[in-house]
Amino acid sequence: MDGPLFSDSFLRKIERLCLIARRGKGGGAVREERRGGKIEFADHRAYSPGDDLRYVDWHLYGRLGQLFIKEFAREEEAEAIVLLDVSGSMAAKMFGAVRLTAALVTVALARGDRAGFGTMADGKLSMTRTVEGLGRRAEVFEWLKAVPGQVGGPTDLDASLLRLPPRRGVGRRLIIVISDLLSEQDGRGAMARFGEDLVLFHWLDAAERSPGEIGKVLLRSAEGGELTAFVGPREAARYERELAKHTEGLARHFAQTGGRYLLAPAEMPVTDLVLDVLTKEGILR
Amino acid sequence: MSLEHPLLLLALLSVPILYLLARKVSERRTVHVSSLLIWRRIGLDPAPPRSLARRADHLLVLRLAAAGLVALGLSGPRVAAHAPDPVIDVLVDHSPSMEAFREGVEKALDTIRSKAPSGVGLRITRSTVDAGLLNLLSRGGDGDVVVVTDHPRPGLDGEGRVRQFLVGAPVENLGITSAWLSEGRFGAVVESFASVGREFTIHYPGGSEKTGIEPGASLVFEGPVPGNRAEIELVPGDAFQFDDRVVLVTTPPSALCLRWQGPEEPALLLALRTAGVRVEETASGVVSYRTAPGEDARLVVAPPGPKRDVDPGSVVASGSLPAEACPPPWLPLGRATVLGSEGEVILADRDGPLALQEGETVTLALDPAAPGSRWSRDPSFPVMIAELARLLGASGPGFEVREGVIDPAESAIRSLSRVPHLTGLRPAVTGEPDSGFGLAGILFGLAGLILLLHFGLEAGGGARGSG
Known about the structure:
Radius of gyration of chain B: 37 Å
Largest sheet of chain B: 5 strands, antiparallel
Strand content of chain A: 15-25%
Number of helices of chain B: 7
Number of strands of chain A: 11
Low-confidence stretches of chain A: 23-38
Shape of chain B: rod-shaped
Helix content of chain A: 25-40%
CATH superfamily of the largest domain in chain A: von Willebrand factor, type A domain
Number of strands of chain B: 27
Strand order of the largest sheet of chain B: 18-16-15-23-22
Number of domains of chain A: 2
CATH topology of the largest domain in chain A: Rossmann fold
Structural class of chain B: alpha+beta
Mean pLDDT of chain B: 59
CATH architecture of the largest domain in chain A: 3-Layer(aba) Sandwich
Distance between the termini of chain A: 29 Å
Largest sheet of chain A: 7 strands, mixed
Mean pLDDT of chain A: 85
Structural class of chain A: alpha/beta
Helix content of chain B: 10-25%
Oligomer: heterodimer
Largest interface: A-B, 43 and 28 residues
CATH class of the largest domain in chain A: Alpha Beta
Radius of gyration of chain A: 20 Å
């Protein structure tokens, strides 16, 4: 993935948005109040370019001659973690998924929240460290650009999600999952524990939603496995009905657990998805 | 059945191509999918249902049938209304002058019909001769074309497939032409332009012979001539008396003269020596032309070089002129200013003698507009000239007059050959190109119906499949 993920004008637009987790009006923002929170010093870490200079410990610099950043744990500090399914089935849809991740991280960083992302495949979870401040956005974007090279392996969201480390410090954590959920191990049980702090993007492209009549074929899965089949009009209709059953089941499940479920068309431009669909659905405000 | 565009039958190749494409499409192909989760849940059969496979076969058959019919239609098939009959192509000259010879045309057609092989009809085309011949000969085939005209064209009979049948007054005519064959011998051709057989007597130096001649036939006579003058006469004469007497003379090698026989027996002899001079439209050598009694002949003589119009010169009989008066290479042309003796007429250009150089060409023709040249309207004369030249082995212009002493001991005149004009006519065996009707429309219509059926079947199957 070469070149910028987004144009500057699009980035400026989404920097004004806010991630909303809970349903309903007036609540659910990852960070709604910036003032009045109790801030406690937690740790030092080495300065890295892009860190907010306000948090440089100048006293320590005077003594040691090295820059250290003071890390605070704020009582209301929010965190947004985007978990991206990078199993083989996501290969064809990965570019859009990476861009959606980048957009959501940008929104979180712009609101002053900590943000990070992880990739899930083959029952594993690879997390990046969370960062804070828009100055770290470029760093996150660089990490994201490397993600398509990591795609492969079967989907086992249950196992992957169980590896998610607990929230460090206090504050709310919003978990955003982007996956096609085309596996028996679709992680619905693991995700249920996130309750209202879950936003799930069911990432399916047009061919997956409606394959049409493809005739006498050998279906070869990106995650391994083959199936010889004849797909005529009746079979195509049955597929669509089965998929609808699948998605409706997921929607019902997460409605009960309090999470947000959104069937997202992977072929849709991410800019439209973010600015139109997500704001209309109330996930962004 | 015939095809107007046989090459378009290559379009039939689209049928096996369509078949192969359909086979290719119906073969199993690999489709990459993200996951088999949903596919496994719906429990798919590996092969299409039998009814669907049958429908696909039916659709393929319909497609192939439509493609085949379109290809056949494009090739323009025609069905003949009836089997082609062998016919003799007869081209009736449709020029205005032929209006006067309607009866003659009918007689000519009867004659041709009677000469045609058994069971062979006539296919009559009425057109100008040039356009009609172009059309008929361009059709190909090896059938003969008989041209019925009042204005025969020299050399046309040599085309191989073309015979000329003369109509009008000459239909009743016998013609005679003559030439020197060798030293002391003459040849004469009597041609029949009559529609019925005739008898005639030919008088020649030293004897006579009575014989019959078939319509359209030619008889060749050859015999010795004592001296340098021969008169051959047909008896009885006919309405065109100009054709029933020819006079041959030998001329001094240094002279080119027209001989005028005098008012009582007006016959104009043109004796051309051809050393360095080519005469067009007449056979070179000794050719006899004759005028009506008491009338002038007019000759149009074009000067050497590119042809151009010149005023006709008058030839009149007057006085006498020794042959030595026209020494070579002078060719006396145009208005006669010097007249030969005893009927010898020396033609000279109106501006004086015209000098001709070696290899130059003189175009010599008769002026048909001249009132005195009735014989110029006799259509037989160019034919006779051409026929004579052919029979005597001349290869066209350039035939040279032979000179010398005629040996009276040569054998008597004898009939050499009979040259039928209308025997052995070869019919055209090609069918009528305009007969029958085209099948293209029917084939396209059928293809359209099949396609409608195809779309109906496809839509019906699709509706059932999605239902």
